[in-house]
Amino acid sequence: MDVGFEMHVFCHNETTLGEITTTLVRAGSCLLCILRHLGVRSPHFYCRPWKDIEAYVLSLLPSTVKEKESTESNTHPFAIVNKPCTLCLGILQEHSTKEFFEKIKEQGDKEDFQYSSFIASLTVPVCAILRQHSMLLFLKDTHKSVYEDKEDTDIPSIKDVWKWRNGPVLGQVLGASFDQKSQFDILLNFLYPESDRECGFLLDLKPDIFKKRKISKKSKKFGWETFTRANVNKVLTTIPDNVFRSKFQCPPPVPAKLCSCNISICHDALYVAGRYNKYSRLLSQTPWVIDGGRKGETSVEELICTPIDQLFKPDEHRFSSSGREDVDVRMLGSGRPFVVELINPHKVKFSQQDLTNLQRKINESTEDIKVRDLQIVSKEDTLVLKEGETEKIKSYLAVCWTEDPVPDEKLEQLSQIQDLKIQQNTPIRVLHRRPLATRERVIHTMSATRIDDQHFKLHLSTQAGTYIKEFVHGDFGRTVPNMTTLLDMDCDILELDVESVELDWPKKLEEGEETTALSEKRV
């Protein structure tokens, strides 16, 4: 058969190629696994109509074999390979049909996902590694001249062939393009109940290598697994061929049943960033729960994230910010940078104008907070929040009280202090959630403005991570020096405002500015 281009296969001798094809047919290989083990690596060929692939493989068989197989089966030379394939366990058979693709579409529609491109991630039973190795050893025995120097990695993988053949067709069913950089992932977890049993002999041969491993949440499975692709491949490189042949049938046996498949769908996390102001002295940054009891009706996180969740419909969210303020501290100025990680969002197609409208909705819902510069950022962009956490500069305004009237000259002397290094033990008030440690921090500048004899406003510019309240009252000597020691009289703090967080992030948006809100590509 003329395939229209030069086919890359392990062997170009027609007689030998026919003999190898015959071996693979009689060993129970499906059509696509026959091509894999012949060395066909052209994605375009795997995409051809099924009848063309069948005709090509049929053209390779010697006429005597065609006649014999047709006579024995009374139907067709490939009747034998309509059974579950000994190599792919049916993954390239029953799970490469339009009916299967319709099931995938139904799952996406059921979960109400929004997407215009997709990628497929396959998890293949681990025993498929052993079955392929078994077939390769069998081919080395029967066709040594062709397969003597071949390794398992020379055979195109089940995953790759599935994607080559089915990616475009699945895309037609979904009405979306198959894109390796898509953020919308179709997870196909193929299950074969006999997989662990077939791998069992490896545990007897190499017990130290096979230690139970907890299954990741991303795999959509739960529990523990003994055999993984990594440890099985590792063991195969150490087992002599004769030992493997004595433990595992070569060629591999016909499976009793096809694989089943669990279909799950997810979208990569999206990140919504902005800056917030907090004007209330009764509002915590995150939900405040003590001994199982809720303190406060709401929080900054909830006021921001509830409308975001309603728009993007994620499974969950994670709120992060550049530092945090206490319940009784206001966040003024240009606000505090924050980011909301949206886990598995179901709705993702939004313009910057949609986000501007969302920002307006948040701001109109409360007088306690305001947000600005709301936008979608990449995962890499969010690293800015963590980078240089202690190098950022923050400005504060504190209203302070002194036990005795404070002389003007003492207040004036404060402005002469530059880059004051202080030592802060973990404050008593946060010891329940922070480890005990001594941290050096820097007060870059300070100045004071008198209110009356015993009250003044203290303006501070400090290194991020400085505990301002403790710097004022000393925390029973746990922060030194402090305002009590600098003024030589007891000092306490009555009110505190954060005036600025000097982090130029995220990008400042002018009113009405349009930016690209979302790319469905992995960055």
Domain count: the total is 3
> What is the tally of helical segments?
17
**Largest sheet, if any?**
10 strands, mixed
Structural class: alpha+beta
**Low-pLDDT stretches:** 217-223, 514-523
Shape, please?
elongated
Pfam families: Pus10_C (PF21238), Pus10_N_euk (PF21237)
InterPro entries: PsdUridine_synth_cat_dom_sf, Pus10-like, Pus10-like_C, Pus10_N_euk
Family: Belongs to the pseudouridine synthase Pus10 family.
EC number: 5.4.99.25
Provide keyphrases for this structure:
single chain, alpha+beta, EC 5.4.99.25, 523 residues, 17 helices, elongated, 10-stranded mixed sheet, Alpha-Beta Plaits, 4-stranded mixed sheet, Pus10-like, tRNA processing, disordered C terminus
How does this model look, in words?
The structure is a single chain. With 523 residues, the chain is of the alpha+beta class. The protein folds into 3 domains: 85-267, no CATH class; 270-385, Alpha-Beta Plaits (2-Layer Sandwich); 393-501, 2-Layer Sandwich (Alpha-Beta Plaits), CATH 3.30.70.3190. It contains 17 helices and 18 strands. It has helices spanning 14-26, 31-38, 43-46, 50-60, 63-73, 98-110, 127-142, 144-147, 158-174, 195-205, 229-236, 241-247, 300-312, 352-364, 408-414, 468-473, 483-487; strands at residues 117-123, 177-178, 184-191, 213-214, 224-225, 260-267, 270-278, 288-290, 293-295, 316-321, 329-343, 369-377, 393-402, 418-425, 438-452, 455-463, 479-480, 491-501. The strands form 4 sheets. Strands 7, 10, 11, 12, 13, 14, 15, 16, 17 and 18 form a 10-stranded mixed beta sheet that branches. α1 crosses α2 and α6 packs across α9. The longest helix is centred in the first third of the chain and has 17 residues, at 158-174. It is elongated, with a radius of gyration of 33 Å. Residues 85-262 form the Pus10 N-terminal eukaryotes domain.
